[in-house]
Amino acid sequence: MLMLNSVVRGGGVAASRWTLASRTLVRASSQFVEESLYEKALESQKNNDLYFRNIDLNEVDFKTEDEKILVVYRDTEHPSLLHMSPFCLTGVSFFQPNGDLGIKQKFGSTIFTVDDPVKANIQLSLSDRDPLTGKPGNQEAHDYADWLATFNNKLAEHIASNLTQYPDLNKKFSFLSSASPSVLFDGISNSIPKPAKEWVNSKDNSIVTFVNLKQPLYSRKFDKESVPRTFTELDEEVSETHVRNFVPLYDETGVMIPVQDAVVKNGDLISCVVSLQPAVYSIGGNAGVTVRRRIRNVTKIFSSKISSSSTQSAPLGNLSD
After folding, report:
1. Angle, in degrees to the nearest 10, between helices 181-191 and 167-177
2. Residue 76 pLDDT > 80, yes or no?
């Protein structure tokens, strides 16, 4: 039986704006993906308990504890909901040893470059392009985006029904409380960053949907005396104050690719194990709620075979046999 491992490191937040990467069409064709391998990967996911289709959101609820939100799944409390995404063709993605460090990106009308390693991120853009044709039409990806949106809606319903338990949010949305419940729900729901964005190709008017995943490359060390595990020269440079949020990348054989060689680029076919962590925040008096989508590990099913020894297990085993 294929088992998901417990590699659960990393962090991230939902992308709320288009990046230059998200606007770029994925370029892929059937020559990149072997149909038999893709079908085997799909079958493996269907039998995996963490695959998003196997997690019934009707069994998911939320609980308030010290003004924080816990996920309740099958009567068990968790800080987040762990799941597996479908295999998707990527848009331009900054998943590489140094993340998006030094790469030009676009936020609104502003083009910027991250030049501080501790402010760098890794980013993955999962599209609904069909893995065998490169054209829009990956139903698994469509349904995944809907599943993520349903999770957000359930969170909004919970907050609307328990608004007084979140003082900062109560101050922000209390003026809607006197209106109908649907108005309060809409106000909260619209404030939660949407998990997916659409891009229209001006050449043929086709629409591509992207689920964007973004999270910090490094986190600040809590124990300044500890010696963090390092993988690259950049890790060494920031090791006094920060530690890498390690996200394993596996190939189709189940081998973990060394960090210095771990790259996901435009048009790759990947699946991610992701945690959904609801969070209430208040920054400078501006309160809100979000869902942090943290990448735990990634499987790329077409890549060169890289020899590597590891004590960890690949989430989908060896799909190449």
Report:
1. 130
2. yes
